[in-house]
Each structure stands twice: as structure tokens, then as C-alpha cells.
Amino acid sequence: MSGAAPHTAVYLAHADDFAGLVALLTPEEHIRARAIALPAPRRRYVAARALVRTVLAARLGAPPQALTFALGPYGKPYLVGLDVPFNLSHTGDHLALAVGNGPVGVDLEEVRPLQNSHAMLQTALGPLERERLQRLPPAQHLAAFYRAWACKEAILKAQGVGLTYDLHAVQLTVPADLHAAPVPEQGPEGPFGPWQLFLHWVHPTRVLALASTGPGITLIPVQTVEDREGRWIIHPAAAVLERR
């Protein structure tokens, strides 16, 4: 393969900006939305489907309603008939959609107190990871835990297996710098070797992790989209936040 592979694009959005695009959903998605009893989760479902459809439609030059999706064996969505790898994550009203040139997995986590910290640490981290985490200052333990969780979930989503995989089978380094991405030491590998992990704190209490086969990540905050003569145009909320 000649030339550098393109960065994975991660579109960041808020549910408020996409929840009104309910007309873009398919009849089946309308049925699923109506089956969600609580207003907030229903609104987030509509926003997530609208974000995926508008962003992918804009990239492909196709009507959002024309895109057909199916689920892989472990529930990961993919575009039928088109090789456009993507992955979606959300925490509360905040959405992240990764679109890559190869398999991708993204996870967005809000740092919040753990209900049962001992059980969560035992579930998510292996013995060596827990030992490494304990070496960090106590004030960093919670953020470091969510960083590890986000990175592990991103790897498993890129692999297409999600949380059906044993989290202990994925072992990561635990960098002292909370802004540094861990390095996978053990676990499933991508099609070209170990997954590349990228990390970004999009807010002091919100961490985004991306696993991909590409060389970097471009973060694109998206506020609105526009249907202009049959072409969907993405309007960034601001300039690209980070390119590395």
C-alpha cells in the first residue's frame, strides 16, 4: 500500500442537535424509538440514529434514508454493501461517531463515582493493572480506571465482540500521565497487528478512546447538518480540535 493511511475521523455531537431529525429514521427505527418508554433515552436513540445516517450520507453522497444497516454476530452494526467502517458511542447526551479506513472502535465515558469500586476494579482490571493503578496518586485512580475501561471497550468494539469478551484478557499499560494512551500488552489483535489506541479528554470529566488500524485521529465537533439540494452538508461546531 502506498502513501499514508488517512486519520480516523471522530464526529462529536450533542443529542439536542440531532434529536429533531426524526424524519430521517426508517420505519423500523421509528418502531424501536416508540418502544422506548422514557423520553430521554428515546431522544438519545433518535439522535444517535440521525447522527449516523447524516454523517455517513454526507461522506457517501447518498440520502440518509437510503443507507441500510445490519448487525454482525456480536451485535456490531455495519453498512450493507458498503465498506465504510464506523462505530458509535455515547454517554448521556454526548455522542461520538468514528468513521475509519479500517475497523474502528470508539468509547466515550463520563467519569463519575463508582457504586462498588472494589467489584468494578475486579471486573475490569487484571491483577497487574490493579497493581499499576495503585501506584498512581489516589486522586488519579478514578480517572485512570475510566481511561482503562474506555480503552478496553474501544478495542473490543473494534474487534467486533464487545463486552462478550473477558475484560481480563485485555491487558494495558497504566501511564502516569492521564492524557497518555495506554499500550495494549495482551488481548485481541487487529487485522494488521496490535490495535492502535488514541485518547482524548473532550472534557475534564469525559474521556474518549479510539482503537483503530490507522495512524491517528481527527476530532470534528458537529453541530448541525443541512440538506442542500439532495446533498447532506456537515457543519462543524468549531475548528478541528486535535490532529495527531
From TrEMBL:
Q: Which InterPro entries match?
A: 4-PPantetheinyl_Trfase_dom (IPR008278), 4-PPantetheinyl_Trfase_dom_sf (IPR037143), AASDHPPT_N (IPR055066), P-Pant_transferase_sf (IPR050559)
Give the keywords, sorted.
Transferase
The protein's GO terms of the molecular function aspect are: transferase activity
* Residues annotated as domain 4'-phosphopantetheinyl transferase: 103-177
Please report the stretch or stretches of sequence annotated as the 4'-phosphopantetheinyl transferase N-terminal domain. 16-98
Taxonomically, the superkingdom here is Bacteria
For this chain, the family text in UniProt reads: Belongs to the P-Pant transferase superfamily. Gsp/Sfp/HetI/AcpT family.
Q: How is this protein named in the record? A: 4'-phosphopantetheinyl transferase family protein
Q: Which organism is it from?
A: Deinococcus multiflagellatus
